[in-house]
Amino acid sequence: MSIPDPSFPGLSQPAADAAAHRQRLHALVQDAPACLASLSGPSHVVTVSNPLFRQLFGERTLAGLALRDALPELRDQSFFALLDRVYATGTICHGPGEVVFRDATRPDPRGPVHFTFIAQSLRDTRTGKSRACCCLPTT
């Protein structure tokens, strides 16, 4: 018999442990000193992004959107083809060259943002199939 955890009322100890682990992981991502996003599926839907990642792209809405739709300014660059390859093959990609982002939704006093990136496939532990990508822009 599991004893409930008082910090998660109504949950068994294993469920409370899992909830606490998710909270710690979420805090780790949100507080990371680097831009970080998790992209789900072949259309790269933004499921998680930290404040530095969102700041890089002008604080626009990203959550729940396919990255191509959220960042149309990048469509003509190699960025999405590289993410597609990472998702399809499971290989890690260190973005060759740099991506240039200019926010088309508002005047940007910073001018264009130049960055390279690292993308890694996140695989389903049961099937081994790619289910998401993790994207780490490095400015």
Describe the 3D structure:
The protein has helices spanning 13-31, 51-56, 67-70, 79-89; strands spanning 37-40, 45-49, 93-94, 99-101, 113-123, 130-138. The chain is α+β, with helices and mostly antiparallel strands. It has two domains: 1-31, no CATH class; 34-138, PAS domain (Beta-Lactamase). Strands 1, 2, 3, 4, 5 and 6 form a six-stranded antiparallel β-sheet that branches. Strand 5 (113-123) and strand 6 (130-138) form a beta hairpin. The termini are far apart.
Q: Percent of residues in helical segments?
A: 25-40%
Please identify which CATH superfamily of the largest domain we are dealing with.
PAS domain
Work out the number of β strands.
6
Q: Do you know the CATH topology of the largest domain?
A: Beta-Lactamase
Proportion of residues in β-strands? 15-25%
Q: Ends: how far apart?
A: 51 Å
Helix and strand element order = HEEHHHEEEE
Radius of gyration: 18 Å
Defining key terms:
single chain, 139 residues, Beta-Lactamase, 2 domains, 6-stranded antiparallel β-sheet, 4 helices
What is the secondary structure topology, with strand pairs?
Elements lengths: L12 H19 L5 E4 L4 E5 L1 H6 L10 H4 L8 H11 L3 E2 L4 E3 L11 E11 L6 E9 L1
Antiparallel strand pairs: 1-2, 1-6, 3-5, 4-5, 5-6
Protein name: PAS fold-4 domain-containing protein
Structure at a glance:
Strands 1, 2, 3, 4, 5 and 6 form a six-stranded antiparallel sheet that branches. The longest helix is centred in the N-terminal third of the chain and has 19 residues. Strand 5 and strand 6 form a beta hairpin.
